[in-house]
Design goal:
The chain has 313 residues and is an alpha+beta fold. The protein is built from ten helices and seven strands.
Length: 313
């Protein structure tokens, strides 16, 4: 889902031109997939924007945990309140400090679940590392020991029929197919955020079984986003874009799930494996082309560096 290109403008034109040559004999419907649906949008992302995007990526999981704790805490929290009330009015006499501590812990867990459900906290145990990972994923040069609050990066993002295309700060091309995105894009105050599906991060059940809760994978900055200001700033405009993304995500996800099912069936029936590849061929060609453009960009960068060193000598 990550690939490299040349500049904020050139990779998009190269991308469309290369696909026109490679797919010259295809239908007009396939040619329509090469044209951007929206964009490109050029904008900057700072630390405050990163915090908002991190909330957009993480809050759904946190609210799921809060819902589970709140539902379980309704019965236990209510019983604990009744027990403490009986102790307070003298109906019951506690046998020790443990009889008071246990109900207090249950009430705290209940309130903790409500807090996660209503206003998820931002779990930044290592803010600099997490922030640096995000900016590095979008082409920024992250200094060692720098202050995350001062970091920023400039991006160019467009939305096509197959997915989102980002030209990162270092000229690399990052393509994210709709087929791999979450079904529901998040609408925040400043962005429309399209996160990637990831069971190891999204599933509350998976992350509460065994020791998984302590080793939940950190967000590495993946996903696509466009600023609401670029969409006209109106709520209706951003919501129309969100509905359009959801429609494309549903279509891509259905093909992807069917391709996965056919690929598994292809272990015993080889024809099913070929059908699975055919279903995802547009996305695979799209990503392969981006990878080729990135390799060219990297090679040109190395040639330019060698040429400049030769001129200095």
């Amino acid at each position: 889902m990550v690939a490299r290109s040349e500049s904020a403008r050139r990779p998009m034109s190269c991308s469309r031109g290369a696909k026109m040559v490679a797919n010259e004999g295809r239908s007009d419907a396939a040619a329509a997939d090469k044209r951007p649906w929206l964009g490109p949008f050029c904008f900057g992302v700072g630390y405050d924007d990163f915090v908002e995007l991190y909330h957009a990526e993480n809050d759904r999981y946190m609210r799921t945990l809060g819902l589970l704790l709140s539902v379980m805490g309704i019965a236990y929290g209510g019983i604990s309140l009744c027990v403490l009330f009986d102790y307070a009015v003298g109906k019951e006499v506690p046998n020790g400090f443990g009889d008071i501590l246990a109900p207090l812990i249950m009430i705290c867990l209940w309130l903790f679940g409500l807090w996660y459900l209503v206003c998820p906290p931002l779990p930044f145990l290592s803010r600099g590392v997490m922030c640096g990972r995000f900016f590095a994923a979008h082409g920024a040069v992250v200094p060692d020991g720098g202050v995350p609050d001062g970091w920023s990066v400039s991006l160019s993002v467009s939305l096509g029929e197959l997915g989102a295309e980002e030209v990162a700060a270092d000229g690399s091309l990052v393509r994210t197919p709709y087929a791999f995105m979450r079904r529901r894009p998040e609408l925040t105050r400043r962005f429309v955020f399209m996160g990637l599906r990831d069971v190891s991060r999204e599933s509350a059940l998976w992350n509460t079984v065994g020791v998984n809760w302590a080793f939940r994978k950190d967000w590495n900055g993946e996903g696509a986003f466009v600023p609401r200001k670029a969409l006209g700033g109106a709520l209706g405009g951003a919501r129309r874009v969100r509905r359009g993304v959801r429609r494309r995500v549903r279509a891509g996800s259905r093909r992807y799930r069917r391709a996965v099912w056919l690929a598994r069936l292809g272990r015993v029936r080889p024809g099913c494996g070929r059908r699975a590849l055919a279903l995802m061929r547009p996305e695979l060609d799209w990503l392969e082309e981006a990878e080729r453009l990135n390799k060219e960009h990297k090679r040109q960068g190395a040639d330019d560096a060698a040429r400049s060193i030769g001129d200095e000598l």
